[in-house]
């Protein structure tokens, strides 16, 4: 830097110093602009996807009556799908990433592929339940009001999930859209418009499915404990049982694909689908046996070494859960959209909504785009604050959640995959407590500690149970009220009231 004497001797040096200062300010401004604009990239791409969804709907529908309604609904459906991808999908691959079985980039790629495949191949039944089973179009006096009701339900669910995600609240996307559809139906035509028998079955599944997830996850962990973890030669036991468990996982997936994914080509019954699953499970277990044997060479005979052998099962179970999630939760994004398209094209006619393929693609792509844009911030070990998960426990939770979600999708019931996974985490945690205290006789004397400290030192953190239950309880009435309010405002502005 030139000295004051140099500046007096050479007037151009002063200009150079001024230029350096200006360039420095410009450089800082560029850095600040880059820093502030970087967080806007993902929302910008998300907005572009929403606009493209609307334009695609306009192109497909053509210049007809009600096209603009479908265009708006498609944009809202895309917005809903993005939120679901950001909120729910990240949890599916979380255990695998947390256990270091797969990298973050690999998890994003696997989840995007499996979510899209699940939505396109096996997502139709649950979409039909959301689009028509809760509130039937014929129960609403005017088709236009039914269209606005579905629009309000879709927007209410999307707004609630966005708000809850921003606040870090653990809410269910499934609860959100079902509550929105119910609230809009009540606002449109009273309580009689809601199919309460279907709502009762859905509500029962919200209670039963987390319990099932917990029981199945605990059962898988019991198998691991009795057959592998607490055996004298853990590595030898793992060589025997890990291929079998992978075969079971492949058999479950093959059975589901035979029942759901292939039904557009050929209709197979339960018995035939199970036989296909068995036909896949046995060869898969035989193929995995030498691979697991080779992978286990040189491993020490301790529990920590087993994590290496469970990397492949954990990734496969997470991929299966992503497929099941896509099949089940695509309904949350495009169920009301399918109902709107059906109502605009055919009115209230028809006993079943024919779901246009472009509607399914909108939801499927939206799930993956939301995951890719916003998932990296949210991916972590599902329920890490509830109980500690390693690779084996995470595998139990992921496979249990996949089995329950697949079963629910087969029945056409919209359930919360996130809450099923949480139920699985509680099941694993409570089983560990029972096994340590009753079987291993690990008696930790905590009687001298305060009640709060004794509770905190339990394997399962009880305090999170109330948070989860509160989130479950508040979501449905909140989205129902929001949806009813949006419908009232929309119909008032449209002159339908």
Question: Your description of this structure?
Answer:
With 497 residues, the chain is mainly alpha-helical. It has one domain. It contains 17 helices and no strands. It has helices at residues 4-9, 11-61, 67-98, 104-122, 124-133, 143-167, 173-189, 196-229, 234-261, 270-295, 303-309, 311-346, 357-378, 391-411, 417-439, 451-456, 463-493. 50% of the residues are buried. Mean pLDDT is 76; it is low at 32-37.
Short description:
The protein is mainly alpha-helical. It has helices at residues 4-9, 11-61, 67-98, 104-122, 124-133, 143-167, 173-189, 196-229, 234-261, 270-295, 303-309, 311-346, 357-378, 391-411, 417-439, 451-456, 463-493.
Structural class: mainly alpha
Radius of gyration: 27 Å
Average pLDDT: 76
Helical percent range? over 70%
Question: What general form does the structure show?
Answer: elongated
Strand content: under 5%
Low-confidence parts: 32-37
What about the largest sheet? Answer: none
Tell me the count of domains: 1
Query: How many angstroms does the end-to-end distance come to?
Result: 75 Å
| Total count of helical runs of at least 4 residues | 17
Order of helices and strands: HHHHHHHHHHHHHHHHH
Q: How many strands? A: 0
